[in-house]
Automatic annotation (TrEMBL):
Binding site for UDP-N-acetyl-alpha-D-glucosamine: 9-12, 23, 73, 78-79, 140, 155, 170, 228, 333, 351, 366, 377
Region named N-acetyltransferase: 252-458
Cofactor: Mg(2+)
Record region (Linker): 231-251
Residue positions of the active site: H363
Its biological purpose: Catalyzes the last two sequential reactions in the de novo biosynthetic pathway for UDP-N-acetylglucosamine (UDP-GlcNAc). The C-terminal domain catalyzes the transfer of acetyl group from acetyl coenzyme A to glucosamine-1-phosphate (GlcN-1-P) to produce N-acetylglucosamine-1-phosphate (GlcNAc-1-P), which is converted into UDP-GlcNAc by the transfer of uridine 5-monophosphate (from uridine 5-triphosphate), a reaction catalyzed by the N-terminal domain.
Protein name, per record: Bifunctional protein GlmU
Binding site for acetyl-CoA: N386, Y387, A423, R440
Amino acid sequence: MSKRFAVILAAGQGTRMKSKLYKVLHPVMGRPMVQHVMDQLQSLDLSEIITIVGHGAEKVKEELGEASQFVLQNEQLGTGHAVMQAEDILKDQEGVTLVVCGDTPLLTKDTLEQMFHYHQEKQAKVTVLTTTIPNPTGYGRVVRNADGDVAKIVEQKDASAEELAIQEVNAGTYCFDNTFLFEALKNVSNDNAQGEYYLPDVIEIAKNQQETVAAYQTTDADETLGVNDRLALSEAERLMKQRINRDHMKNGVTIIDPLTTYIAPTVTIASDVVIEPGTKILGDSVIGTDSVIGPNSEVSDSQIGTQSKVLHSVVHDSQVGNRVNIGPYAHVRPASDIRDDVKVGNFVEVKKAVIDDGSKVSHLSYIGDAEIGKNVNVGCGSITVNYDGLNKFKTIIEDDVFVGCNTNLIAPVTVGRGALVAAGSTITKDVPEVALSIARAKQVNKEGYAKKFNKLLK
């Protein structure tokens, strides 16, 4: 198989987006459009990927990193001019070059792979990706010859009535014989109203040289969507969300309401997971089998084990074990490690804490900068007081401890194994193993004082 290359066109500013953010960096399902394109290209067997950058060049380079070589297009003088910028890297190479726009986030590796194969089967100098749409107004129509190859691509304004009836359109993605591409680009003229060099002019050059120009038609028109404004961006988001949810459901995930479920493309979900309505799963999250997420929950960059539940709650940048119950209305903040058979109940906040196997923090508590051992019960309203205004300190609660309700644990402090902490205590010193610790003011009852107090209020 000959070498294969790809050129991503990512230099445009995207004025129709009406944004200070450069067009190809606008996110679709949480990832910049150009990153979606790169993800698909990296799944192909390519010798080289070159990204043509212009507006926002440094930001695009930062996003794509070492996945690509970069060439700067100082002036944006058309798509043909953009590809010309890759000449120094590719001109002496034998093989096939794919040219794809950085604002086409829905293209898939399967379609691009099939396009490569079709190009080689046809021994074409150029292959155009096409699709059929019911209303092709505004698109260049693909006119085929008797052999099924491209006779010409005619723009809307230049099309005859017969050509306007054609529903097959140019999707703006191309495969080229690499040597032919850079020779042909030398003959592309900017003699047009915009004074720009257009890549599709290479097709006419190929036709004039009696070369084969093929057309590979994808049956999924959604893939070819190019994003030029916020309306198209919204449509791309909808279609990508639909695709991702559909793929998970095909792989054995139950999504109760796909319309209100948002799953990032980098998420891994095992079979027999149930995703309830109103749920977002983001980043590099992993959800284990038989778990239930939602309703109305958010999991981001976290690992959830098997048979666990996250109900009306938020989990960020954390590890959650097996058979864990979180929520309702709990917040697991970054760097938390919630181990097996743990309960983090309603209105509980956990931050940078380990909660070991079988422990329970059932309601209305804050556990921050803490290590909680196995089989610990933390009573309602208990707080690890971790911050003195300057520094954070750690609370350690060893195995089998019972912490009574409304307890303040003033860090740094350790509660020894098997100890009991009386409700309402403020613990400022370490508690020995199997001790009972009571740290609260002695109760004083002043008989009749309420009558005097009530008179003062009148």
